[in-house]
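Folds vary. Our protein:
___
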Amino acid sequence: MSPDDVKKESDFHLVQEELSDQERVRLEKWKKLREKGIDVFPHRTEQTHSVFEVVRDFFHLSREELEEKQYQVKVPGRIIAIRKMGRATFFHLSDYRDRVQVYLREDLIGPENYELFDLFDIGDFLQVEGRLFRTRTGELTILAEKMTFLAKCFHPLPEKWHGLQDIELRYRKRYLDLIMNPEAGETFRIRSELTKKIRQYFDERGFIEVETPMMQVMPGGALARPFKTFHQALGINLYLRIAPELYLKRLVVGGMERVYEINRSFRNEGVDSQHNPEFTMLEFYQAYIDYNQLMEMTEDLFLFLAREIHGHEELPYGDNLISFKKPWARLKYKDAILQYSGLSRDRLDNEKDMMELAGNLTPEAKPATYAKALDIIFDKMAKEKIIQPTFIINPPREISPLAKANRQNPAEADRFELLIAGMELANAFSELTDPFEQRQRFEEQAVMRKTGDEESHLVDLDYVEALEYGLPPTGGEGIGIDRLTMIFTNQKSIREVILFPLLKPR
């Protein structure tokens, strides 16, 4: 070791200014490892298996089969438990998905290396090389023949049962959540699997995955308040996208008849169990279909995902069992309000009464129109009671400015929302393809903005011009990936399915 490698104690700094006794002991152990010439910041390691792969590939083998084959493995992982018994030690290595036992014997690994293990702590990363066997109790175990230090954990980990109960701490320090709670890692593995299977579904049906701008000169594609920023070089305001919709439909105008995007979108709104200002959506568009075919496609997609990821068509969610078996219920918007709100038909049709009721439900944002009032009433009095997959169809055209009007009732839109477990999972419609009507709709929205409705659409003349080149009959849909993951992992909060949800600074 060169003189430069030997540092004074004052040169070692951890984030905390005041260290606990345990942290000081761990720091001293790390220094001793350096003094012994151990590479305390190794560049890489050569492994044959992860912890999960060892359990997956060898757990089914008997004691006799392991003895016969003499399987040798090199496995890195984090030490999560240590049980020392004189000249033998058992400890467990873990990755974010599983754990495996290691048996360390002084007579096999040598006295010097066995003493070296005293400098390791729970939380340290270690690679073990050795042979697989089963103990007398039948536990799959690695008989260690060689150890390689990989990283020091300078802070004691929370106690398994008592140290990581603070929900906010789990979100702020997701790395600790993943270390201590294997079920958290499983949630995010399923989330990853969902996006893979979604891509498989659309790729097999001839869709093209695309990317559209996240910074936009004019936000559009949804009724929401955007985040605003400024581009220094161009000297212009930009907005983080609230949806990719208008750009994806431009691609359909250009001849890309089937497109989809798994995208990050941003909405300057509150945070609760179902909302995070930064979220992930799937949006897809297909030419020559309408919202009826989109409903059939949505049923197929969700059923495909349930079978592929969980192997069956029903998933537990809280106290309910969600069934994705077809067909799903289809319920008209007003009928859904009647069925679940307890309001009478006469009262529902009384515009003044409904605007007053909606104003009482949201005193901070009183509705300016009857359609907006119905939207509030549905959201506050009906939505959470709809548990099984249900298409809520034909809401007011006024709150659907990008959707075709219904032929039988032009005051309604050819649109649906998919409700599952009281949450909106999808929003879809037959796209408005008439450039003249689209411009008129935008101008109506602009009037509403002047009255203080910040969630109304701006007049996007560039998009209207794109429509003037011809948008064929098209169906388009957005599906919330975060909420979909909540359903597939039985989580009641969106923060459980987003690795780093937005939190108020401490």
